[in-house]
Amino acid sequence: MQNIIESLRYWLLKIPEMFHIMTETEMTERTAPNRWSKKEYLGHLCDSALINLERFIKIQYDVSPYVVSTYDQVQWVELQGYQKLPIEEILLLWTSLNKKILVVLGNLSEQALSRPCDMGQQQKVTLKWLVQDYLDHLEHHVKKHL
């Protein structure tokens, strides 16, 4: 768990640095129809943080196994209008949510990490797997789209 926490701390410093050297055009350009801009990818990472923060908390006390529900990622990005928001607003949201996630992760017990989650379609995982998946998802988007 400590490796995940350290990686998340690294991205909390690195991602704002990345955006602070970009021009507005670089942040808002969509490279193809039906593709998100860098601002929208960051907005998507905000949505992911929001959804996963709730999951990481609920899994610890809710009915076991916790059923992980999905959400319409495209609708979330579009309806929240990330493309038109100032980058500082999106960065503040993303960093605030991830700082809160760090607090939750720092308080997880080994027992909590082994709590079962039902991902549907016969896929059973643990909270620890879900936390690792959150970081993997974040890093995938950072490396591919930001």
Overall description:
This is DinB superfamily protein. InterPro entries: DinB-like, DinB/YfiT-like. Helix content is 66%, strand content 5%. By secondary structure, the chain is mainly alpha-helical. It has a single domain, classed as Up-down Bundle (Four Helix Bundle (Hemerythrin (Met), subunit A)), CATH 1.20.120.450. It has a three-stranded mixed beta sheet. Helix 1 packs parallel to helix 7 and helix 3 runs antiparallel to helix 7. The longest helix is centred in the first third of the chain and has 21 residues.
Please tag this protein with its features:
single chain; 146 residues; mainly alpha; Four Helix Bundle (Hemerythrin (Met), subunit A); three-stranded mixed beta sheet; 66% helix; globular; DinB superfamily protein; DinB-like
Element layout with pairings:
Elements: H1 2-20, H2 24-28, H3 38-58, E1 66-67, H4 73-80, H5 87-106, H6 110-113, E2 116-118, E3 124-126, H7 127-145
Parallel strand pairs: 1-2
Antiparallel strand pairs: 2-3
Helix pairs in contact: 1-5, 1-7, 3-4, 3-5, 3-7
